[in-house]
Structure formats: structure tokens, C-alpha cells
Amino acid sequence: MRILILKDAVQYNLSEEEVRQQLADRRLSMSDRASCEGAPGPWIPLEQILHFIAAQRADESREGSKKQQQRQPRPPERQSTEVDHHTVLGVSRNASPDEIKAAYRQRMQEYHPDKVAHLGRDLRTLAERKAKEINEAYEALGRSPKC
User: Fold this and answer.
1) I want to staple 33 with a disulfide (CB 3.0 to 4.6 A). Which of 43, 45, 56, 59 is the partner?
2) Quick check: helix, strand or coil at residue 147?
3) CA distance to 52, 83, 84, 116, 139, per residue, from 80 (Å)
4) Looking at residue 113, what is its pLDDT?
5) What is the architecture of the domain spanning 85-143?
6) What is the location of CATH 1.10.287.110 in the chain?
7) What is the pLDDT of residue 147?
8) How far apart are alpha carbons 42 and 52 in whole angstroms?
9) pLDDT averaged over consecutive 10-residue blocks of the chain (147 residues)?
10) What confidence score (pLDDT) does residue 68 get?
11) Segments in the chain forming alpha helices (H)
């Protein structure tokens, strides 16, 4: 899995092995900001990303053993389509329109397709998905009379 590292306002696209080597060489620290596909949030500490990846691998290995035990495939579970737009943009529920606009611009700088065009396919896909979420949240909050 590829990991996107944000260090000194520069984004690095590294494999997990490369990240561990950079940590050993003390070029990265566990508190550096990072993201990866499926991560619990954007730009969280690298330590949390590594824990997330380890947990994801454990889940995959458990799923693999379950699939071997079960012969009939289960129907896919429905995911909740309800999204908290304030959380996506990182603003409080009583944020002003100017705060929402500023948060939108800041989040789009992180995930804009032009900013991640040079990165790996997985991270570009992640960035596209996040950018869509950010745009949807901004449109929903921008048209809301309550914002």
C-alpha cells in the first residue's frame, strides 16, 4: 500500500517499506502527517496510518480464513450514504459562510487532482474520491440557509 506523506509542505508517495526505512534513518518521524487509501481521516499522524494498515492487514487475513470456511458468498453490506458535511470540511456546525469557503479551499489544495497527478494510481484515486466528497460537502453547506 502506498502512503502519502506531507512533510515541510511537500507531498511524498512512499511504499510502506520505504516509510519504515525512512523512520529507521530518522528522516521521518511518527508525528509527520500522512494519508493512505481508506484512512480514518486526512493528514493524520504517521503512527496512526501504520496502525491502520496493520489493522487492515489483520482484517484481510481474517476475511481470507473466513472465505475459506464459507462456500456461499454473502451479499455486500450497504454502506451508509449519509455524510457529515461539516466533518468533511473540518468546520464546526455554526461556521460562517466565509469559514466554510476557507476550509473548502484549504481541503481542495490537499486533494485537487492537479496536485496529485504525479502520484501513484491508488493515491490519485483516493484524491479524486476525497475531492468529490469535499465538493459535495461544500455545495451542500453553501446552499444551506443554516450555514
Assistant:
1) 43
2) coil
3) 21, 8, 11, 28, 19
4) 77
5) Orthogonal Bundle (1.10)
6) 85-143
7) 42
8) 13
9) 84 87 87 85 85 84 67 55 77 88 88 78 84 89 59
10) 61
11) 16-24, 46-69, 85-89, 97-111, 121-143
At 72 the pLDDT is: 59
d(CA 129, CA 145): 26
Q: Which CATH number fits domain 2-69: 2.30.30, 2.60.200, 1.20.58, 3.30.1490?
A: 3.30.1490
C-alpha cell at 25: 534513518
Side chain identity at 64, as an amino acid letter? G
CATH 3.30.1490 residue window(s) in the chain: 2-69
Q: Where are the alpha helices (DSSP H) in 33-120?
A: 46-69, 85-89, 97-111
